[in-house]
Design brief:
161 residues, alpha+beta, TATA-Binding Protein, two-stranded antiparallel sheet, 3 helices, 35% strand
């Protein structure tokens, strides 16, 4: 009877170690480490450097980490012949919030977005602009460990004289 209880406890301890080891190795490296030195746009003419694409592009000029899954049912897109706008939503289990923030802070300027401001707390809000539009990135983590990213792109309001 005692030997049987000892075997059960040993099996549970071994299983716990395997699960813990898998969890620790699942989040190796941050977006900043993975993206450093990789161009977002192709090489200039005459250059022989090979182009490495980082992430996926939405709304013509917003690059999103390829690890994030697009939530089409939660997103909305407005498109004309000259302009695309909308709110796109993405999610993924087990990503670090800071690595997602780092991805946008590194790659948005490469796509000619100007950093405006950031609010960081339980949620992170990053704001970028271009001469004709703005982009706000909202990054949250649920209590279950899911990262949710909402990207809102819209036209820049006209200034009154």
């Amino acid at each position: 009877m005692i030997a049987n209880a000892f075997r059960k406890k040993s099996a549970m301890a071994a299983l716990l170690l395997v699960v813990a080891a898998a969890g620790w190795t699942g989040c190796s490296g941050t977006a900043a480490e993975q993206q450093a030195g990789q161009p977002v746009t192709g090489p200039t003419s005459g250059g022989s450097a090979e182009w490495v694409q980082v992430g996926r592009v939405y709304l013509d000029d917003v690059r999103v980490p390829s690890e994030l899954d697009f939530d089409a049912d939660e997103s909305i897109l407005y498109e004309t012949a000259k302009f695309k706008a909308g709110v796109l939503r993405f999610s993924k289990w087990r990503l670090e919030v800071q690595s997602v923030i780092d991805f946008f802070m590194i790659n948005m300027p490469k796509d000619k977005w100007t950093f405006v401001n950031a609010f960081k707390g339980k949620e992170a809000f990053l704001t970028f602009s271009k001469p004709d539009k703005t982009c706000t990135v909202k990054i949250t983590e649920t209590w279950t460990g899911m990262i949710k990213v909402a990207i809102a792109v819209g036209p820049l309001g006209e200034t009154k004289p």
